[in-house]
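Subject line: Sequence and fold of a protein, written as structure tokens
Enclosed: The protein record, placed directly beneath this head.
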Amino acid sequence: MTQDLVQESLIDPQALAARVSQEIGVSDWLTVTQERVDLFADATGDHQFIHVEPERAAREGPFGGPIAHGFLSLSMLTAFSLQVLPVFEGAVGINYGFDKVRFLTPVRVGARIRGRFVLSEFTPRNDREFTTRYAVTVEIEGAARPALVADWITMTVLEG
């Protein structure tokens, strides 16, 4: 996303509304480390061996080594979005939910992932609130298929 859109959108959300059906931005690559996977396992209680036991995952698992939790890949959308989506001064951004999430390819520990955001819908709710719908893809560097695709809805409440 260009800095011009970020600056313009700080003043007028219609600058974002004019970008419906366009790619808004692509985040930087992020390496999925075993430490991040282990911390996520601790946070969620999901300690399945394919995530947290690298030697066993390589020996017994179906993926040749440990993989990230699907929900870990999904949760990275927040970090990715902070790099590329516009921020409205004095506004509050709220995660409104998902209409669709599909986990397509496991993310192996050590792989690099990034988020690609296409604005598919901009819906004013009133003069201070609007929702946005993004078609999001989490790509895996060098992979033919993405880690996941999602239809993510956010709500913005403007200062007022």
